[in-house]
Amino acid sequence: MPHFYTAPVVTVLARPQFVEPAHLPVQWLGESTDAERLSEFAGRLCYMSQKNPANRSTRDYIENIKKQQHGSVFEHASWSLLIEGVSRSLTHELVRHRAGFAYSQLSQRYVDESHAAFVVPPAILGDDALLADWTAQVEAAQATYVALVDKLMQRYSWVDDKVHRRKMAREAARGVLPNSTETKIVVTANARAWRQTLELRASEGAEMEIRRWAIAVLRTLQAEGPAFFSDFETYVAADRVEAARVVHHKV
Description:
Blueprint: E1 4-5, E2 9-14, H1 34-47, H2 58-68, E3 78-87, H3 88-94, E4 101-105, E5 118-119, H4 128-155, H5 162-173, E6 182-190, H6 191-201, H7 208-224, H8 226-229, E7 232-236, E8 242-246
Parallel strand pairs: 1-5
Antiparallel strand pairs: 2-3, 3-6, 4-6, 7-8
Helix pairs in contact: 1-2, 4-5
């Protein structure tokens, strides 16, 4: 039996590490993360205001940046996230976000999907009859994939390179796998790019699965760099699914 995901899994792979130059020390105030200090340092360098004449804490400084919409300094702080338990349908939408992003995704051409997992669409959860119908379809598709790979390996038996033969078989057989097939992807983006994408994908108008993913990423990043994402508010939308809205648009 394949594994079925009902929520994404988000793992932080990399986060900013700030190393303050000894000859340009900043008068830091308040609690902060390395990511937040990096952006504050970059912003203060523009005006050589390291002495902090306004006596702002780091998080107050970043809040003022959001209000002023000078978000370019947010581009210095980046996070790399491992995303699992999402469908290929979701990543097809996600990779449309290009500016400030980098992606590395599992290849169906090379990876054996005989034991692939699947992502249950949020709209199906809670309805046993719909879930049974959906499960039967994805399990049948996976069985067809396994059979096709076996037959294609036999068809291409004249190909001496076994690795290339498997690739030929899998790239053809993957055509029967559904959009709900689970995939894994490493996503790297800076704070400004994350803000803009989460504003769009966590909103009520977003497709349900990618909205669920956006809420999970938002909560992860709010723990990583609270000041960057403090103006996002999560709530239960009219469709009874969580969504988020933001105070400062297009920072």
